[in-house]
Write a structure and sequence with these properties.
The chain folds into 2 domains: about 150 residues, Jelly Rolls; about 100 residues, Homeodomain-like (Arc Repressor Mutant, subunit A), CATH 1.10.10.60. The protein contains 12 helices and 10 strands. The strands form 2 sheets. The protein has a 6-stranded antiparallel beta sheet. Strands 3-8-5-6 form a 4-stranded antiparallel beta sheet. Strand 5 and strand 6 form a beta hairpin. The two termini are about 30 Å apart. This is Helix-turn-helix domain-containing protein. InterPro entries: AraC-bd (IPR003313), AraC_XylS_family_regulators (IPR050204), Homeodomain-like_sf (IPR009057), HTH-like (IPR037923), HTH_AraC (IPR018060), RmlC-like_jellyroll (IPR014710). Keywords: DNA-binding, Transcription, Transcription regulation.
């Protein structure tokens, strides 16, 4: 059960970046993922989370970095946690050394300490994206990351079923149909998918559609029931439950936060 409260969120697709500030109580969030790099700083408290089958603890002032589509679950180890996070998309990464971020997906840790960078992230305005400041932050961050040559690792590949979902999430298709289209047996596909992602195919597809919904909330004035149908949820309640599992708040609440800026 989530007890998260988002206090600010701005979306700037033209820059490929979102800036979010939030507060989370001890219940945290169950396993979920994002479709962009999550780069954040703990402003207050201590956050425990699991990502890539490893346990982490991020304390006040620590930075956390989670690759796109990596399922993670988090909770507050203290009574309350405040944090600020950037969601960095491909548009933004192309301005810097994206290869370093790819290498990080194979790194052994998701938490590190860099006080100056943490201070800059903490100072970002969640009502307006300042592109020059964001670009400077990303370049500073890239300088801290290992180069692909230093790590000597191969960029992780998405599961074939993930690739199919990423192509077809807008279509009126169920996860089971996509499983049947793959050349391997159903048992093999389900086993390898859950092992690699940590979610069932149905849960993954629902979360992927919910992730896309935040852009629709920002761009359209359609009702939540209409958005639910557009994203192929059975009804608004189903859409709201999935959305809250990913973001910790309802779509109606997030729309109000986004439009408040």
């Amino acid at each position: 059960m989530s007890d998260k409260h988002i206090t600010g969120w701005t979306i700037a697709p033209q820059h490929g970046v979102e800036v979010v500030s939030a507060r989370m109580g001890p219940h945290g969030l169950d396993g979920h993922f994002h479709d962009a790099w999550s780069i954040g700083v703990i402003l207050e408290g201590t956050c425990s989370f699991r990502a890539g089958n490893r346990e982490y603890e991020a304390r006040q002032g620590d930075l956390f970095l989670i690759p796109p589509f990596e399922v993670h679950a988090c909770s507050a180890a203290s009574s309350d946690v405040r944090y600020k996070v950037l969601y960095i998309g491909d548009t933004c990464l192309q301005k810097i050394d994206a290869g370093r971020f790819s290498a990080l997906a194979n790194a052994s840790s998701r938490v590190f300490t860099a006080p100056p960078l943490a201070g800059h992230i903490a100072a970002l305005d969640t009502r307006h994206v300042d592109a020059p400041r964001t670009d400077a932050l990303l370049r500073a961050l890239a300088a801290l990351l290992p180069s692909p040559r230093e790590t000597r690792v191969r960029e992780r590949e998405l599961h074939p079923l993930q690739n199919a979902m990423h192509r077809l999430w807008q279509s009126d298709v169920e996860a089971g149909e996509l499983v049947e289209r793959l050349p391997h047996s159903r048992w093999h596909t389900l086993r390898t998918f859950r092992s690699q992602t940590g979610l069932s195919p149905s849960a993954y597809l629902r979360q992927l559609r919910a992730l896309k919904a935040r852009f629709l909330l920002n761009q359209q004035q359609a009702s939540l029931s209409d958005l639910a149908l557009l994203l192929h949820f059975t009804d608004q309640a189903h859409f709201t439950r999935t959305f809250k599992a990913v973001f910790g708040v309802t779509p109606g609440r997030l729309r109000k936060v986004i439009q408040r800026r």
